[in-house]
Design goal:
alpha+beta
């Protein structure tokens, strides 16, 4: 009886404990790496926060000059076998369509805006640094 329990339950318990250990380590790593990028410069005066706000708004306006295009979408027919949709016992043989969109232009424009914003801030003397969420 004891041998059966060990043979059937022992490896399962060990695997569950390993899984719990791995999950705990992943959770610990995820919590330890929380943070965000912040803009900093050499100025330590009280006017620095005001300057940061002005520079950020100016750089946001510069980045907004890069327009984001509409995604190019086309209507495509979805091929289903005949009578794939039976509604209330009646065969619904109408053609199904869907939008298929290409948003590579949108993503490229958004990336260009981010790059423009960062270049503008760096040109004004700011550096982007990683700050963990525990610091203020």
């Amino acid at each position: 009886m004891l041998v059966m329990f060990y043979a059937s339950g022992g490896p399962i318990i060990r695997n569950v404990m390993r899984l719990i250990s791995v999950m705990f380590l992943l959770l610990l790593v995820a919590c330890a790496t929380r943070g965000t990028y912040v803009w900093v410069n050499e100025d330590t005066s009280r006017q620095n926060e005001r300057r940061l706000l002005i520079d950020r708004l100016s750089c946001d306006a510069e980045a907004a000059k890069i327009s984001i295009p509409e995604p190019s979408c086309t209507v495509v027919a979805i091929n289903f076998p005949p009578c794939a949709f039976v509604i209330g016992g009646v065969c619904d043989a109408t053609e199904r369509t869907a939008l298929q969109c290409d948003d590579t232009g949108v993503e490229a424009a958004k990336a260009a805006q981010v790059s423009q914003r960062a270049s503008c801030m760096e040109a004004r003397g700011w550096s982007s640094v990683w700050q963990t969420s525990g610091k203020k």
